[in-house]
Amino acid sequence: MTETQSAPSARRVALVTGGSRGIGRAIAQALARDGLFVVINYQNNRAAAEETLASLGGPQNGRLLPFDVADEAAVDAAIKSIAEQEGRLDVLVNNAAVAVDGLLLRTKTADFMRVINTNLSSVFFLCRAASRLLLKAKESGRIINLTSVVGETGNAGQVSYTSAKAGLLGLSRTLARELASRGITVNAVSPGYIDTDMTRSTLTEEMRKQLTAQIPLGRTGKPEDVAEAVAFLASPKAGYITGQVLRVNGGLLIG
Fold first, then answer.
1. Which of 42, 161, 193, 240 is catalytic?
2. N or C terminus: which one in the chain shows less Cβ crowding within 10 Å?
3. Could you tell me if 135 and 184 are in contact, meaning their C-beta atoms sit under 8 angstroms apart?
C-alpha cells in the first residue's frame, strides 16, 4: 500500500455517474440506504451534487467526484482516485446521459457524436477502467447500465439518443459473457417515460398526456421506480442474474 492509498473500505462501494439529480440521485439514495458507500459523479452542477450527498447523510455515506464521463483520461483518473481513497469498487452504475433530439436530416455530426460519446463511449471507458477493481470484488461485482425503452423500439427524432442506448444493450450483453467467469454480473435497466427534469424540458404538456395514455399502468414513472430496480441488481439477491435487460416502463414495451 502506497502513502496515497487508504485501507480498503469495509463497506461495498458504488460509483454512480450523473448522480447529481433525477434518476442518478434516486439511485445514489437507494444504494446508500442499502448500506453502500456511494461515489457521486457529476460534471457541472456542484450545488445539486452536494444536495444529493446531503440526502445520503453526508461524507460518512459518500463523496463527490466531478469528471467528464466522455473524457477517457478523466475517467482513468477518477477510477484511480477511487482505488486510492476507497480501496475498492463493487458496483458501477452508468447513468450519465444527454439528449440532443432531431430528425436524421437535421442532426449535426457534432451533436450526434456528443450524444454517442456521453451515452455510449463513456460506458466503455468506465467499464474498462473499473474492471480491475471490479474483478477484485469478485462475486459482489456489479455493472448496471442505464439504457432506454427507445433503444429497443427506436423513436423518430432521436437518432443519436436511440443509437447510443441501443449500443448499450450489445455492450452489456458482451461484458456479461466476458466477466461471468469471475463472478461479475452485468445488466441493463431500461426505463420508459420517467418524470425528470430532462423529460419535462423536452415535452409539452400535450405530448406528456399522449405518452401517458400509451402506458398500460396509466402513469409516468418516477426516478425511484428505476432506482429500486438498480438497487435490486446491485444486491446479493441478484447474484445469478446477468446479461439481462430489466424494463421499468409501466408496460409501455412488453415482450
1. 161
2. C
3. yes
Q: Please identify, in words, the CATH class of the domain defined by 13-247.
A: alpha beta
Mean pLDDT of the chain: 94
Task: Return the percent helix, strand and coil in the chain, to nearest 5.
Answer: 50, 15, 35
What backbone phi and psi angles, to 5 degrees, belong to 250? 65, 15
The full length of the chain comes to 255
In angstroms, rounded to a whole number, what is the distance separating the alpha carbons of residues 117 and 120? Answer: 6
Q: What counts of helices (H) and strands (E) characterise the chain? A: 10, 7
Kindly list the distances between the CA atom of residue 8 and the CA atoms of 3, 17, 78, 118, 234, in Å, as whole numbers in the listed order.
Answer: 14, 21, 16, 30, 19
Per residue in 87-122, pLDDT (tens digit) is: 999 999 999 999 999 999 999 999 999 999 999 999
Cell 436511440, residue located? 162
- Cα 213 to chain centroid distance, Å, stands at 27
DSSP 11: S
Cα–Cα nearest to 128, from 203, 173, 179: 179
231 residue type, one letter = A
- Identify which of 191, 188, 193 has the alpha carbon closest to the alpha carbon of residue 245: 188
Active site residue 161: yes
pTM, two decimals, is 0.94
Q: How far apart are CA 249 and CA 100, in angstroms?
A: 22
For the stretch 70-97, what's the b/e string if a residue is b when 16 or more beta carbons lie within 10 angstroms of its beta carbon?
Answer: bbbebbbebbeebbeebbbbbbbbbbbb
In the chain, domain spans: 13-247
